Amino acid sequence: MKKTLWISVLLAMGYASVCLAQKQVITLGTGGETGVYYPTGGGICRIVNKLKLKPGLRCVLQATDGSVANISRVLDDSLDVGIAQSNWIYKSYHETARDDVEMMGQGAQGSELRTLLVLYPEYFTVIVPKDSDIHQFDDIKGKRISIGTRGSSLRATMSDLLQKKKWQYQDFAQVLSLDATEQASALCEGLIDVMIYTVGHPSGAAREATDDCDSRLISMQGPEVEQLLAENTYYRWAKIPGAIYRGNIKSVPTFGVSATLFTSTTLDDNTAYSLVKAVIEQLDEFRGLHPAFARLDPEQMVKGPFAAPLHKGALRYFKEIGLIE
Ligand code: GLU
């Protein structure tokens, strides 16, 4: 009797551990609901879950504060995978001994970051109400602005730019710390004079601002931006295509980065392999999920230079299908 009881207990434990071993949840950090990271993560999880590439593998989405939050959470293992701007991945990867550790998470080891796929272009986007007297970036001085929440990528971008322009918070009528998703309504309600967001297009946030209060996009040019680009290889000139948003017919020159799917060395090779395989194999379906993905091209998605090196598992897949030699 005793012996059979033990055998049952052992069998049950064995079964439980097999089940546990098979269940694997990948958490994917995105951004706010009105950005493009959120639907991107949704599309990736949907494909991974549909394909069942590994038994028990499930992908679960999390809304976050965007790049900087995702980088710090992938590094502290509270997320497995994230989407982030190439510039912040680059900065975190290359500047482990940096003075802004707080921004990326205490004790974070940026050198452990790994690229999975380069996704789509993101643009530094500045939007003002239709009748605003802001016509170029310099005109925002003295106005009411939002610099994003603490720890957000918007805060990091704004602090870079304010530094370049040698502007202090006192140079503005008001400096709010709104969440990226709150900006469009704040702009249309007249709480801020300008909305700034580095995002792919079309995005829900820019659509809200242009639909709800006829806002217009303004360009980013001038010596400071030129200097910013000269100093940072990961920024590049870009044009927000015209006719995406109501009332904004012309394309708008600005600078941009690449939205990048990334992880850390902690993610096992087989999972990284399965994840990129799922996206590349289902690229046609993925392209149909959001207009920002319409021009995704596998060769560009695995083309360096990468903000952080490719994950070994991803590299194995790209070599296998001949995208990388
Ligand atoms: N680029 C933004 C960030 O890193 C997020 C944009 C989005 O959610 O699409 O915070």
Question: What can you see in these coordinates?
Answer:
This protein is an alpha/beta fold and 325 residues long. It has two domains: 2-120 and 259-320, D-Maltodextrin-Binding Protein, domain 2, CATH 3.40.190.10; 122-257, Periplasmic binding protein-like II (D-Maltodextrin-Binding Protein, domain 2, 3-Layer(aba) Sandwich). Helices cover 39% and strands 20% of the residues. The chain contains 13 helices and ten strands. The strands form two sheets. Strands 1, 2, 3, 4, 7, 8, 9 and 10 form an eight-stranded mixed sheet that branches. Helix 6 links the parallel strand 5 (144-146) and strand 6. Residues 31-32, 35-37, 66-67, 85, 122, 153, 198-200 line the site of glutamic acid.
Question: What would a concise description of this structure say?
Answer:
Helix content is 39%, strand content 20%.
